[in-house]
Structures are given as C-alpha cells and as structure tokens.
Amino acid sequence: MTVNVEALINSLGKSYQYMLDKDLIPYKTAPKGSSGTPTINLEMAQEGIFLSFWREGRILKSVTLRIQHEPASSWTFPNELPAPLQASMSRKWV
C-alpha cells in the first residue's frame, strides 16, 4: 500500500480519528501501548512508517520513516518522499 508521507507529516498535532477520516492510514488497527505510558504507537512495517500518538486524545506526536531495513538488503522504501528527502541517501548527502 502506498502512504502519503507528506500528508502524514502535515498531520502532526491532528487526531488519529482525523487521519482515519482522511484515509491517511491504510490500517484500521488502533495504536497501542503499554498501560500507564503517555504515548501509543502504530507500526506500519510494510510501509516503513512508525507513528507515535499522545495517549490522551490520540494526537499524532511523531512520524518515523525507516528508509533502510538492515535485515533485508533488497528492501526499498515503498512510498514517495517529500523534498528534500530521497529513497537513497548516503552519509555524505545527509
């Protein structure tokens, strides 16, 4: 599934329900976390995306993109990245 990374980034501070209503999250699985922690998370492994929400209000706190996947050398990030990010970034480029 393709995910609109730029729309996810622009959704920082928005609720999980808002993101579902806008079809930004392909899964209908709710974010989860350990009892008592202030954050809950949603791992979208196939998309290379990890979302973290504040538990109270389920507000998007952070978006983590996994550009590299160490165990799978042939894996490439499956979504379009907003500028200036690139699917292949060397240490020198960074």
Automatic annotation (TrEMBL):
It comes from Enterobacter cloacae. It comes from the Bacteria. This is Pyocin immunity protein. InterPro entries: DUF6392. It holds the Pfam family DUF6392.
